[in-house]
Amino acid sequence: MTGRPIVLMLALAASSLTLTPASAADSAAGKAIFERTCENCHAVVIGVNKVGPSLWNVLDRKPAAIPDFAYSDAMKANKQPWTSTALDTYLADPRGDVHGVKMFFKGLPNAADRANVIAYLQTLK
Ligand code: HEC
Question: Is 33 inside a domain boundary?
Fold first, then answer.
């Protein structure tokens, strides 16, 4: 009889753990990737442009929406909002996705890296 409350507690702990699937994108890992691979060119604070435009609140934003950033004509012609799917395609191969982009970056070949970076970008609002 004395063992039962412990078993119940373990069952509860196990069921709350399943709320976070192992495959969920990890914004903390994405932040580390961002700092390594994007931050040279992109600030994450509002209004700060470097070689690339500020990525504050980029999720679901229209492409080329920062007024004082000199985008390429190709990016200005891109009308598809930056949904997580559009970002995934773009970050896999930036210069292949939007032909003629100014972003001299070969992309993130690893899908999990892209998902993590997008999860991090989602936190910037
Ligand atoms: C070598 C510099 C450089 C690196 C590294 C870089 N970018 Fe960029 N990025 C740019 C430039 C320049 C543009 C503008 C492209 C254009 O106008 O064609 C841009 C554009 C973008 C845009 C479109 C922004 C908008 O306002 O429409 C997104 C999103 C983006 N980059 C995300 C990233 C992410 C995420 C990373 C890292 C995984 C990254 N970039 C790495 C330079 C860079």
Answer: yes
